[in-house]
Design goal:
With 422 residues, this protein is an alpha/beta fold. The chain is built from 14 helices and 18 strands. The chain is elongated and about 80 Å long. The protein binds L-homoserine.
C-alpha cells in the first residue's frame, strides 16, 4: 500500500470537496489505485460550517502547513500572489505541490516549475484546467508520443452553459445569474464571460503541448457578451452553432493562441457538447482526432482531478525519473492580425432599394468575397437583418471592414463572429 501524508491549504468549496471525496470514495480509491492518503493538517483561516474536519489538525496560518511532516501541500486558496508565495514556500521546504489554481500556474508557472526542479519536487495541476476532466495527464503522458497540431474546445463551462441556453431561446443575463447560482461562474463572472478563464486554460495546455512560456505572450481574447439570441437562429439556418472556443494550433512552426466566440458546424463533435460541460478536440498525428468532454467545474469534478494527482504522486514520487523537462518553446507566436478567417456579419439595415448593392459594392472594393448574403424576414420594424458570410480574409482587415459597413447610410448596427475552419 502506497500512502501519502497531505497538508491542505484552504478550506473552501474545493478543499472540502476533496476532503469529502477522499472520505466517501476511500474504498474505490484503494481498490483502483492501491493508494491511501492521510490528511495530517489543514490550513484554514476560518472554519467552514459546511464541513467538519473531525480530528484533523487545523492551523490558522496557511503558511505553517509547509512546516509539517507531510509529503505534499495541496494549495486550494485560489488567487495569485499569496498562492505563488505559498507554493514557493512549500517547494523550498521540499514538499511536492498539488494545485487547482489555474491563475497562479498561468501567471507564474515557469517560475514555479523551475523552483520545483531545483528542489527535486513535483508540481501537479490536473484540476487547474477543466477540473477533473483529465486533459493535463492526457497531454503530458498518454499522448506524449504524438505531434499535436491543434487543441480546440470549450474550456469555460459558464460560457458554454450561457451559449447553450441562448441557443434554446434564453436571454444572456438570466442565464448568467443561473450559472452564478449553480456555482459554475468565477467569483467575478467577468473572467468567464470576457474569455479570461478560457484563456488561462488554453495558455496552460499550450505550455504542455508546445512548450510555450507561462505566462504566455499576449494573445487575442474575446468573450461572449456581444452575442445575441438571434445569432443562433441565423447561424442555424446555415448549419452552424456558436461556441466560445479556445485554440492552440501549431502550423509551420508558428503557434496560434486565441480565445473567442466562433461559428462551428452543427454536425461537429464540439457543437453537441451543451450546458456546463467542457469539451476539447485534439488533432494528433498517430491517433487522429481525439475528443474529451466532461464537467469542468464544481466541487466533485475538481476533487476527482486533485485525487488523480495524489495517486500519480504516490505511484511516481521520484522526480528524476519521471518529471518532464520543461522545454522552452521554439515556436513563434502568430500575430493575430495575420490570421485568416471567414466571418459571419449581422447587419441591421434599412429596408429600401439599393441596400444590398451598397453592401456588396463595399465588399468588392475591399476585395472580400461573399459566400452568402441573405435578407431575413421583415420584423415589422423599419429595418431588416442581413446575414452575410464572407470568404476568408485577413483579421487585420476585419475591424476596418466592419467600420466601413457601419458607415453606410442604410446600416444601423453591425456585429460579427469568426467562423472556425474545420
Ligand atoms: N468558472 C469556471 C468555468 C470553472 O465556468 O468553467 C472553473 O474553471
Amino acid at each position: 500500500m502506497k500512502s501519502l501524508k497531505i497538508g491542505i491549504c484552504g478550506w473552501g468549496n474545493v478543499a472540502t470537496g476533496m476532503f469529502n471525496a477522499l472520505h466517501d470514495n476511500v474504498d474505490a480509491i484503494k481498490q483502483n489505485s492501491g493508494c491511501s492518503f492521510n490528511i495530517e493538517v489543514i490550513g484554514a483561516r476560518r472554519d467552514n460550517p459546511k464541513c467538519n474536519p473531525g480530528n484533523t489538525k487545523i492551523v490558522r496560518d496557511i503558511f505553517e502547513v509547509c512546516n509539517h511532516d507531510i509529503d505534499v501541500v495541496v494549495e486550494l486558496i485560489g488567487g495569485v500572489d499569496v498562492a505563488r508565495e505559498l507554493i514557493l514556500k512549500a517547494i523550498n521546504n521540499k514538499k511536492h505541490v498539488i494545485t487547482a489554481n489555474k491563475a497562479v500556474i498561468y501567471h507564474h508557472g515557469d517560475e514555479i516549475f523551475t523552483a520545483a526542479k531545483e528542489q527535486g519536487v513535483k508540481v501537479l495541476f490536473e484540476s487547474a484546467v477543466c477540473a477533473g476532466t483529465p486533459i493535463i495527464k492526457l497531454l503530458s503522458e498518454e499522448l506524449a508520443a504524438n505531434n499535436i497540431t491543434k487543441i480546440s474546445g470549450m474550456l469555460n463551462g459558464t460560457s458554454n452553459f450561457i451559449l447553450s441556453n441562448m441557443e434554446e431561446g434564453s436571454e444572456f443575463e438570466p442565464t448568467l445569474a443561473l450559472a452564478q447560482k449553480e456555482g459554475y461562474a468565477e467569483p467575478d463572472p467577468a473572467f468567464d464571460i470576457e474569455g479570461m478563464d478560457a484563456a488561462h486554460k488554453i495558455g496552460i495546455l499550450s505550455s504542455i503541448a508546445y512548450g510555450s512560456p507561462l505566462p504566455p505572450e499576449d494573445f487575442y481574447i474575446e468573450g461572449i457578451t456581444h452575442i445575441e439570441k438571434d445569432d443562433f437562429t441565423y447561424a442555424a439556418d446555415m448549419g452552424y452553432t456558436i461556441k466560445h472556443l479556445a485554440v492552440a494550433k501549431l502550423e509551420r512552426n508558428s503557434l496560434e493562441l486565441r480565445a473567442h466566440p466562433a461559428l462551428i458546424k452543427v454536425s461537429s463533435h464540439l457543437a453537441n457538447l451543451k450546458g456546463v460541460r467542457n469539451g476539447m478536440e485534439l488533432d494528433t498525428d498517430l491517433i487522429g482526432k481525439i475528443h474529451i468532454a466532461g464537467s469542468g467545474a464544481g466541487q466533485e469534478s475538481t476533487a476527482s482531478g486533485l485525487i488523480s494527482d495524489l495517486i500519480h504522486l504516490s505511484n511516481c514520487p521520484n522526480v528524476d525519473s519521471s518529471q518532464k523537462e520543461q522545454q522552452k518553446s521554439v515556436h513563434e507566436l502568430s500575430v493575430f492580425g495575420d490570421l485568416v478567417f471567414q466571418y459571419y456579419f449581422y447587419l441591421d439595415a434599412e429596408d429600401k432599394p439599393g441596400v444590398m448593392a451598397s453592401i456588396t459594392s463595399l465588399l468588392a472594393s475591399k476585395k472580400v468575397g461573399i459566400e452568402s448574403i441573405v435578407q431575413k424576414e421583415d420584423r415589422g420594424k423599419d429595418s431588416v437583418p442581413i446575414i452575410l458570410i464572407t470568404d476568408p480574409f485577413k483579421e487585420n482587415d476585419h475591424a476596418e471592414l466592419q467600420k466601413e459597413l457601419l458607415g453606410l447610410d442604410s446600416v444601423k448596427a453591425i456585429r460579427s463572429i469568426r467562423i472556425e475552419a474545420e
